[in-house]
Amino acid sequence: MVLDGAKKIGAKILISGGGRCNVTHDVVAPDDFNGNRNAIAKVLRTFSVEETVAWFSSMGVELKREETGKLFPVTDRARTVLEALVGEGGDVLSEHRVEALERGFTVHTSQGTVTANRVILATGGRSVPKTGSDGHGYDIARSLGHTITPVFPALVPLIVEEGHWIQSLSGTSAEVELSVIAGKVIARQRGSMLFTHFGISGPAALDISRHWIAASAAEAAAAPLLVANFLPGETFESLDRRILAEGRRVLRGRLPERLANVLWPSEVRNLTKEERRRIVRSLIETPIPVVRDRGFDYAEVTAGGVPLSEIDLATMESRRCEGLYLCGEILDVDGRIGGYNFQWAWASGRLAGNSAARASIG
User: Where do runs of H (alpha helix) occur along the chain?
Assistant: First the structure.
């Protein structure tokens, strides 16, 4: 029996991947996640990408690989995925929000109580709370003896200082390398970045966001810097040499014209050494004045949660409460953008489900 608090289930599936549902990625490794990677590896090994593709195919959902490595249903419709999952059977009770869970188990819902000998907690985190993942799952886990590591948004757009030139380039995208620096480089991410009316978004910005947020929250830490290299692969020395040899032609085909005109206005010629070095610096080491993230309403995933050390990774059963299993986003695991978080959901959910079923039969 599946208990879901929403009126219509699967809202997160329907909005994922721009409404197409990025089911998984063609290559998924522990390094694609934040968390205890040795522990994550144990769970991922139980259900590979190839097995995931075959599983969806068995339900009539064929997947296609796009150039980025992302796998989508050939229909380009997230509803195809949702309907296949729901169509696999079982009692799915919507509008049955779980209010509390007592050991044993007595499940208190908004529609009454249910008893069970095995329970799987698959409530998600706090991202996009209007879909139902409002963080209540953490309260339930705590009530049964679990601890919760600090929870914060991940894969979330970032807001810059009001009036910064970044906001004037809304709609422009560029290939960049972003670095979070707090005394040293904490994280580095290369990919497409989208300029928006509030700041930055796009894969590179979303992937780096959790590292900037975590560094910002670190006790006694200086405020982290987010620095952009708009010509990934170039160093100060290499770009300085190229500009000396090629002038502004070095930007041709490498930067959107709107961005190029901000960093090196086309009318600026015959550079002095000081001007040239300033332009080089702006092209490869531009500080992005992030003031905050857009919050859980806009986050694609939640960082933090129940530590994997409190879970038996062979079964996903809780080490704190016999008969309770946990899977998915409620756990302290978050992955990159591109289908990785779904793969964690499929692998950990399948392991939890099969383990709970075997224990019930046994």
Answer: 11-15, 37-44, 49-58, 78-86, 136-143, 202-217, 236-246, 257-263, 273-284, 340-361
